[in-house]
Amino acid sequence: MKIPSLTIGDLTIRVPIIQGGMGVSVSKASLASAVSLMGGLGVIASVGLGEDMASTIPFEERSRQALATEIREVKQKGLPVGVNVMVALTNYSDLVQTSAEEGVDVLFSGAGLPLRLPEYIGNSPMKLVPIISSGRAADMVCRTWSKRYSRFPDALVVEGPMAGGHLGFKLEDLVDGTAANLETLVRDTIEIADRYEQQAGRKIPVIAAGGIYTGADIVRFLNIGASGVQMGTRFVATHECDVSDAYKQSYVDATEDDIALILSPVGLPARVIKTSFVQESLGEKQKFACFYKCLLTCDADAANYCIALALLNSSRGKLDKGFPMCGQNVYRINKIVSVEELMEELTQEAESLLS
């Protein structure tokens, strides 16, 4: 039996695997193109782009130019592409508008509730997909969009507590293991999506994210009722991923003991691989100048370090000056493969179980 495709509005994704958007400079055009070429949906993370450009160019402008360049690289190959834009960014509306102008197929938005997202896209046919971490949040987005804009999300990504990067849960719940598991969150979100589908006049697919690792995991969530999955961590350990070799090798070398939960300057918990910088960042406040003013939720005067610079350093291989973000299953990775190998492994296992 073939793995079912994922349909979001009039867009059909042949393999129901979305590669999660990973900043800073982790998922760019190279990775996104490779995933879309294999039938999934590749996603460019908009945060932290443009830092190879001249610093004399204003932050907003170089962010805009760099995002447009990455999008065009994928679109020129005739491939579908998604973009992830964090609600917490100070240039959020600008990056959303850039995505719409460049003909992005799907825009994913989390790290805060994207309650005003439809305001920024004009008449663009771009699909809008909030990233949420509870059925309650899904209900709030659907209710708000319906009331303000007479529209509904084109799909919903529900991200569980095993995900990488910034997480929509309380730190103590993650540490204690009391955060709701992904299976529960997916069921709750499907219930909310079902409630609004009649008003929307179409299906609102629910996509499971956070801790998806194998083809068996994909089948498990399809059987629960999800229409697809989003995966991030496994795609970092591919040849096509845009980060440095040192970053990728940290995934291969990681053990369970190397995974840490920290409270980021963004104000959210984050799951990372321990480096010397992680311990240093928990100590005395480091001296730094805020070059970016990139995050609404970051108080540079109170923060111990610059999260943007730490993530930029790590993506470039300077792991002593930053840290790689990761999902809970990173310790299971033991080699770097091509995107083609990974996608084939996932689909073959899923299809054998479906059969």
Task: List descriptors.
14% strand; alpha/beta; 12 helices; 2 domains; 13 strands; 355 residues; TIM Barrel; globular; 3-stranded antiparallel beta sheet
Topology:
Elements: E1 6-8, E2 11-13, E3 17-19, H1 29-37, E4 43-45, H2 59-75, E5 82-84, H3 92-101, E6 106-109, E7 127-132, H4 135-149, E8 156-159, E9 165-166, H5 171-176, H6 182-200, E10 206-209, H7 215-224, E11 228-231, H8 233-236, H9 245-253, E12 259-263, E13 269-273, H10 276-281, H11 307-315, H12 339-354
Parallel strand pairs: 3-11, 4-5, 5-6, 6-7, 7-8, 8-10, 10-11
Antiparallel strand pairs: 1-2, 9-13, 12-13
Helix pairs in contact: 1-2, 2-3, 4-6, 7-12
Structural notes for this entry:
The chain is α/β, with parallel strands linked by helices. It folds into two domains: 6-244 and 334-354, TIM Barrel (Alpha-Beta Barrel), CATH 3.20.20.70; 246-328, no CATH class. The chain is built from twelve helices and 13 strands. The protein has helices at residues 29-37, 59-75, 92-101, 135-149, 171-176, 182-200, 215-224, 233-236, 245-253, 276-281, 307-315, 339-354; strands spanning 6-8, 11-13, 17-19, 43-45, 82-84, 106-109, 127-132, 156-159, 165-166, 206-209, 228-231, 259-263, 269-273. Strands 3-11-10-8-7-6-5-4 form an eight-stranded parallel β-sheet. Strands 9-13-12 form a three-stranded antiparallel β-sheet. Strands 1-2 form a two-stranded antiparallel ribbon. Helix 2 runs parallel beside helix 3. The longest helix is centred in the middle third of the chain and has 19 residues, at 182-200. The radius of gyration is 19 Å and the shape is globular. The model has no long low-confidence stretch (mean pLDDT 93).
